[in-house]
Design goal:
The chain is of the alpha+beta class and 154 residues long. It has four helices and five strands, in the order H-H-E-E-E-H-E-E-H. The radius of gyration is 26 Å and the shape is globular.
């Protein structure tokens, strides 16, 4: 009788092992969920590339990530609710990304009036740098419309 119990225990252990080993490859083959460090959807960086493409150029000119420049973290403070999420500066335009359209609207309203700021959803386009001041009004309108189209596809 004791041999029967040992036999069944071994059979159950073997079945459990087979199930465990059999399930492992299937679990590994599942695509992993994107990590929190991978932004989902449209970002200022992807918008810069999309705007270049939409306006028929390879680049808007020297795209640089200047996110630290629009954050309280740069001053050694904790991130603030009104900080931008991302800032990409090019020779043509600066593209600010914010958490919400309301925060973007606040930034556009509060920025100096000597620079052209345009809000598109949670983004703001700014033309305040020296090279950006050379961007024509027609090109600015074109970039704004292209960003509206990119946001609508999101």
């Amino acid at each position: 009788m004791r041999n029967i119990y040992i036999g069944w225990a071994l059979v159950l252990a073997l079945v459990a092992l087979v199930l465990l080993v059999g399930c492992t490859p299937a679990a590994e083959s599942k695509p992993s969920a994107p990590s929190s460090s991978q932004p989902a959807g449209l970002t200022a960086k992807t918008a810069a590339a999309g705007l270049a493409d939409a306006t028929g150029v390879k680049t808007l000119g020297d795209p640089t990530d200047n996110t630290a420049g629009c954050s309280q973290e740069a001053a050694g403070e904790k991130p603030h609710a009104n900080d931008c999420s991302q800032l990409i500066t090019t020779d043509t335009v600066s593209i600010y990304e914010f958490e919400t359209p309301k925060v973007a609207a606040h930034w556009v309203k509060e920025m100096p009036k000597d620079a052209d700021w345009r809000q598109v959803d949670r983004f703001a386009l700014a033309f305040g740098a020296r090279d950006q001041a050379l961007t024509s009004d027609e090109r600015r309108d074109e970039l704004e419309q292209a960003l509206e189209a990119l946001v609508a596809k999101e």
